[in-house]
Amino acid sequence: MARVLSGIVAIPIVLGIVLYGSPWLFFALVFLAVIIGCREFFSMTARAGTPGFPVAGYALAAALLLCFYFPPVYFLAWGVAAGVFIPLAWFLGDKNVEASVRNIAATLLGVLYVAGLSGYFIAIRGFEGGNHFIVLLFMIVWFGDTAAYYGGRSLGRRPLAPAVSPNKTLEGAAFGLAGSLLAGLAAHYGFLQTVPLAHCLIVGVVCGMIGQFGDLVESLLKRSTGVKDSGALIPGHGGVLDRIDSLLFAGPVFYIYYQIFL
User: Fold this and answer.
1) For residue 8, how many C-alpha atoms fall within 13 Å in the half-sphere facing its CB?
2) Residue 2 in contact with residue 235, Cβ under 8 Å?
3) Under DSSP, is residue 124 helix (H, G, I), strand (E, B) or coil?
4) What is the DSSP code (8-state) at residue 113?
């Protein structure tokens, strides 16, 4: 019940901001998700003995999102900032030489994984009709997750990646791709008539497939750090990373597809 109620409250708010919010309001939504996601990431790595440098990570994550919003030239400045701030965070910290490389690596990974991949949604929102493309990505992931869950629960027999996520099956993955394909079909006839059907279907399959990979990546992170959920912010759903793990990978892939083919 908590899972259903959370969806009833959160989904209309998110969709309302995506479809009708100003660019800055959408940026604020992504920013909030990224900061919470980074906090969850650093909390998980801390459980495994590698806390990273969270304060420097939050600052670099915020700066990286701004690079997606403003002209691309600022990415060069961000690279310089990352090269300075993280070693400085180590110098001002406990100066644990043995753990320094692990903490620096964890900080960079957290920033690039959460903020670097999320930033593509800011770029996509800037496309003509970008708000509808983001809804398409949401549908691809949501339809795929739902179909994979019920299809795998009913007919799942062969494990997909038992070392990472024992409950996921090949049958569930196949149902998930079918759900993502259906999402592309529904989006084309619902609100993307200007985009050829073939592109909607290809995006559904490709982004659905890479979205499942993103889910496995987060499962690997959780298993390696010994946690069941990335957090407990969303009742019945876990943390923010648990909700956006597939979108983190689907967004950049759609961005590349759009630039090449659309």
Assistant:
1) 5
2) yes
3) helix
4) I
Phi, psi of 94 (to 5 degrees): -85, -5
Q: What confidence tens digit (pLDDT) does each residue in 196-234 have?
A: 999 999 999 999 999 999 999 999 999 999 888 887 776
Q: How far is 215 from 159, CA to CA, in rounded Å?
A: 15
| Residue at token pair 């496995």 | 216
CA angle 124, 125, 128 (to 5 degrees): 90
Distance separating alpha carbons of residues 90 and 74, to the nearest angstrom? 24
Coil/strand/helix, residue 57: helix
Asked if 116 contacts 243 with a C-beta cutoff of 8 angstroms, the reply is: no
CA 77 to chain centre: 24
Query: What value, to the nearest 5°, has the Cα angle with vertex 230 and ends 26 and 125?
Result: 20
Phi, psi of 6, rounded to the nearest 5 degrees = -60, -45
